[in-house]
């Protein structure tokens, strides 16, 4: 695997989008370097090279080497590292600590706030840590995790959470956990929480329905298991056409000197401006 193999184009729009606003978080098997470049060129707001769940133990070292080489030869991405209780956590962080293209890490199986802090301390100062919460203990400690030094955003590992607790995939069964992450994120003054992925084989309609649940719970991002899900997630978690039209009309009227009216006017104006700012960031405002 040569250095020139890692010459890749990062989607310019996505590269310029702050990670706090990322809707789609695309997981890429770290043991498959040929998949790195297509993922980075896709419309995914953020790309995560996955060295944890996607990689068997026997391939961890090889996958780690491929990731570090890619991040040292021009690629930029997030990396999912193995949980702190595993034998691989320390080696992952040691290898990544000087990788120039590392945007941040996702910490698998986060259950305690100090796990995030210890992870951040092993990396270059300021490297953000996305806490992936995948267990009942993690959900119950979500507020403390959200407030821990180093925590950037919270993400929900739905499949492992379901295995841990025995709950179904029904949105009602997962509502408590999702709500806990949303409230914890607010208390910790973090960007919106990131929801778990749709199924690996989910089509566009299923992904959009999943996004409807995600948005209704107050979550603002979603993990993706394939490039084919990215555009549906971006669409599903963006302001809708009706919201854009409403924001346009309200902001235009305000600029033209509309009267304040009742007590709901200023909150509505603030919401319209937030929609406009998001639309501008996502390249939708003038679309």
UniProtKB/TrEMBL annotation:
Residues 23-225 form the HpcH/HpaI aldolase/citrate lyase domain. Its cofactor is Mg(2+). Signal peptide: none annotated. It comes from the Bacteria. InterPro entries: Aldolase/citrate-lyase_domain (IPR005000), Citrate_lyase_beta/mcl1/mcl2 (IPR011206), Pyrv/PenolPyrv_kinase-like_dom (IPR015813), Pyrv_kinase-like_dom_sf (IPR040442). Keywords: Lyase, Magnesium, Metal-binding. Transmembrane segments: none annotated. One of its GO terms (molecular function) is lyase activity. This is CoA ester lyase.
